[in-house]
Predict the 3D structure of the following.
Amino acid sequence: MHIPDGFLDLKTAATSAGLSLPAFWVALKRLQRTLPRRRVPLLGLAAAFVFAAQMLNFPVAGGTSGHLMGGVLVAILLGPSAALLVLTAVLLVQCLLFADGGVLAFGANLLNMAVVDVLGGYTVFVGLRHLLPNRRGLLVATAFSAWAGIVFASMSCAVQLAAAGVAPWGLVFPAMVNIHILIGVGEGLITTLVVLAIAQAQPDLLPSCKRDTTPSPLRHLIAYGLALTVALVVFVAPFASKAPDGLERVAATLGFAHHTVPSLLPAPMSDYQIPGIGSALVATGVTGFLGTVLVFALAHLLALRLLKPPLPQAGGAPRL
Amino acid sequence: MRTLALDAYSRLDSPLHRTTPGLKLLAALVTVVGLAAVPTTAWWFFLAVATGLAMGTLISAIPPGFLMRRLLLLEPLVLGVAGLALLQPNGLNAMIVLVVRSTLSLMTMLLLTNTTPFAELLRVLRRVGLPELLVTTLHLMVRYLFVLVQESERMRRARRSRTFVTGRRLAWRSSATLLGQLFVRSSERANRIYAAMCARGWQ
């Protein structure tokens, strides 16, 4: 998802940087206030860990492989502010030392992979943790939030590419989001397995599981409701942006298209030139909605399956 | 290890290597911003940048083959994103411009990072106001990057030598365990580093 230089125009790059820098600043100020001094080296080591983890390939079908992105994982392990700083360091090194991700596009990459992925994913994680506070809940929340973080980041990336005029909004959004709905499943799976492995090796590195009770059916209901809301809010967005588009279409047929105000994103205007765009957006909305519900159910199944043999208590021998 | 050689050429001795890091960084930034700012028809500008980069490569005494290999390694990503432009009307033209812009920007950054050690770039960034905490994090990260990569290589080798049957499920499970273990070890190492830093009078 690293955007190279040459794709974003100055306006998009500046806007993205303007959005991500305040977030970085807030995280930095919070860390300077709250981070104990003995945790400072851990930030550097966590950044190196993310970098090393991204080099480890996981086999996917047909000879291809994927790797962990790690944003939500670090947020779960170290907290959101530390994760934002760690991911900033990782992106800066990838950009300056390996030329992976552009300098001008740095603000945009920072926004997608440090701010949106970490904060979006972590918000979902915290919400689910409140509703499902037991061990199984930890795994469900981990799997689902890691997936959600990737999908959010891909959306923000699609918005940038569309705003920069690389490809029309109606094409780039479905393309990016549909691919990352699948990639996110891998991210969720790896993140959950890593969290489980850490729970077995060194449980005190993880956020504590306060009560090891089964949550009430009501809480389950609310958790499912939350997932549904996320799905609705996120995937109705393309429809919402279709609405003014529809108005423009009406305006065009009625012959006063010249009076329409240019929209924030230039792309929807070029929709008309390619047939079938509307249906692609609708299809993304539908698959996205179903995908969200399906992934949430899968997260539950995964947690059930992984926890079938109960986790060894602290100090117990790791099972693997 | 292959990755260890990544900035091996940044310590050569050439006029370009001796130029002040701040100046080089500024020049690279101006070039990249310029590439994004000029209109798509400004072929003279693209040509000028390409000539400048070619001359820079010659002066820098870095084997051009090495820079080309690094460029080719990153090019699939560029082509992937640029391919999206094919989907719009007059897409081929738009795609060519994107690829040219992107490739020239990449080459600029490659030339910068291969003629300037990372620590010096960091010193410049710190002088222009990069926060202290981020600078410390970056220094530690770059110092321990290869240590952790090698540690994970070592654990992978150990695992491979003990595993007779492999399947996708087992591979995922054991790779994830490896990553978990790597994090546990990283956090233990961080504690040792903190103790060592304190012992040497850190703040």
